[in-house]
Amino acid sequence: MELVEPAVSSLNMETEAMRKNSTLICVPIMAESIDQMLIDMHKAKAYGADLVEVRLDHLKSFNPSEDIETLIKRCPLPNLVTYRPKWEGGQYDGDENRRLNALRLAMELGADYVDVELQVIEDFKSIRGGKPAKSKLIVSSHNYVNTPSVEDLGNLVARIQAAGADIVKIATTATDITDVARVFQITVHCQVSGVPIIGLVMGERGLMSRILCPKFGGYLTFGTLEAGKVSAPGQPTFKDLVNLYNFRQISHDTKVFGIIGKPVSHSKSPILYNGSFKSVGFNGVYMHLLVDDIASFLQTYSSTDFVGFSCTIPHKEDALKCCEEVDPVAKSIGAVNCIIRSQTDGKIFGCNTDYVGAITAIEDGLRGSCHTSNTTGSPLAGKLFVVIGAGGAGKALAYGAKEKGARVVIANRTYDRARELADIVGGDALSLADLDSFHPEDGMILANTTSIGMTPKVSDTPISKQALKSYTLVFDAVYTPKITRLLREAKEAGATIVTGVEMFIGQAYEQFERFTGFPAPKELFKKIMESYS
Ligand code: NAP
Ligand code: DHK
User: Fold this and answer.
1) Which of 103, 182, 257, 369 has the CA that lies 20 to 30 A from 340?
2) How remote is the CA of residue 347 from the centroid of ligand 1, in Å?
3) Mutation pick for ligand 1 pocket among 362, 449, 510 (CB with most ligand atoms within 8 Å)
4) What separation in Å is there between the alpha carbon of 128 and the centre of ligand 1?
5) Burial, 352: exposed, middle or buried (Cβ in 10 Å; 0-12, 13-18, 19+)?
6) What number does the ligand 2 atom closest to the CA of 507 have?
7) How far is the CA of 267 from the centre of ligand 2 (A)?
8) What is the rounded CA–CA span in Å between residue 227 and residue 490?
9) Which CATH number fits domain 270-352: 2.60.40.2550, 3.40.50.10860, 3.30.160.20, 3.30.2350.10?
10) Is 260 in contact with 309 (CB distance < 8 Å)?
11) Where are the domains of the chain?
12) Taking residues 483-502, what's their average pLDDT?
């Protein structure tokens, strides 16, 4: 089958000069046939991959003596040959001698790298004999349960080195995001000692290890051809590594930012900030951070390299308690959605940008509608402002509406929290269950600050369409999707709607400026969100 070299994409038009690190991006090739493997290799090359990992264990059937030579000789990139057994997380469950002999053959046929599991390295070496080979030997260890202590990781590195590895490979599993710090520590130690290491942490909580490995001296990271088609849990796509995280520009002094939340993968903040960092030439990277305990996260990643974090569900209230200094408005709201670590004394400052983002968007919505007179003050003054929710965003909206002279009512699933917040802002409270029948007047304003209707539960809504007729403007803090069922039905009921995207853009202005010291590129923010909404 003659393969036509695809047109070289812009992805690999970059020159070495544009790269600020030597960490390689390896694309795992997991096709079930030789022909498809060759097609995928060429796709990886067109993307700009540095090398491919040929996962022989994914082939449905193959003849080692013929097919390994074909794969190696016709591979358009440097290749790493792996034949992962089931007992180490792969697909192969055949004869072990056959497997090791296939790897021996790959080495003799000139594979650039061959990956052999530490557990069988002595068997492999006795099959290989002492024949010289150009291949670099990667000796690997995979832990699909947890991430050992630094001491145990250090001992593992030593065992792998003693086994004759040219490159050490350790893949562990994060049960908490703080596990990644131990692999960073080992990676730095190996780099300082001149020992090439691939140190990666599997699972969503290990994403940081795959993006930041250039910062700590990792030898390579894996990037997939397609989202979700991974050879190990948590692998990002090649395109996200290069285009979203600006991987080639990450260096040891790159500053680290992220969105702290649980869940967090829905957040569009990485898209917004990484694109904007790049536009102003700021040396920072921003990523999703699946955090279980925000205090332990901040204590673990306490270096001044870990500069700034946005906070979302369910950490905004706990975030405030972690800050050594809190903006007075955030203190009044009782929630922090932006954390900054001082580059001089490492102290943590917290503020709340949600309320400005939301209230400004709602005021603009009212001014743009026919439901308000052209007063010089806020169009919110005197309006009955119903906030659904009493969490971080709910507190911000309640505080902001009160500041603008509105009469605030809090409706919440947990009534006590509604009552507590209503008392703080001098308003009234009701249970969410009573919201449908709440209709003291017309022309009210409704603001949803719960996660009801957020992807993936897009058919959910906090209030009936019939009840929406009492509202002149409806805002939804949820921004994935942009038009929630609530907003769709509110518009059908004749209300002006304001989306969470407008709040999201507005709340990011101040964060960007605090993260970078640069003015927020507001038009770019809008353009980025247009293409993702
Ligand atoms: P949070 O602090 O965890 O508060 C969540 C609130 O939602 C609580 O009042 C909770 O009620 C309520 N809630 C959650 N699930 C519910 C359910 N199934 N039924 C009824 N009520 C429910 O979260 P947050 O940080 O305020 O964020 C809330 C939402 O706003 C999220 O979707 C977030 O993405 C969005 N948000 C968007 C922006 C933006 O820029 N567009 C900014 C901030 C927040 P209980 O008190 O009864 O638990
Ligand atoms: C959502 C929020 O709740 C904001 O307060 C954060 C985050 C950003 C998000 O990225 O989804 O600042």
Assistant:
1) 182
2) 28
3) 449
4) 59
5) buried
6) 12
7) 7
8) 34
9) 3.40.50.10860
10) yes
11) 8-136+205-251, 270-352, 355-498
12) 97
Ligand showing the shortest atom-to-Cα distance for residue 273: 2
Reported as a pLDDT band with limits 50, 70 and 90, residue 11 is very low
Please work out whether the CB of residue 484 comes within 6 Å of at least one atom of ligand 1.
no
Q: Are strands 255-261 and 306-311 parallel, antiparallel or unpaired?
A: parallel
The predicted pLDDT at position 373 comes to 55
Active site residues: 142, 169, 316, 354
CATH for the stretch 355-498: 3.40.50.720
Q: Are both 8-136+205-251 and 355-498 of the same fold?
A: no
- Whole-number mean pLDDT of the chain? 94
> What integer is the mean pLDDT of 474-491?
96
pLDDT tens, residue by residue, 107-149: 999 999 999 999 999 999 999 998 888 999 999 999 999 999 9
Which fold is adopted by the domain 8-136+205-251?
A: TIM Barrel (3.20.20)
312 C-alpha to center of ligand 1: Å? Answer: 9
Mutation test of ligand 2: which of 313, 351, 448, 507 has the most ligand atoms closer than 8 Å to its C-beta?
507
Q: Report residue 18's pLDDT band, with 50, 70 and 90 as the boundaries.
A: confident
- Choosing from 286, 312, 510 the residue with most ligand 2 atoms within 8 A of its CB, the one to mutate for a pocket test is 312
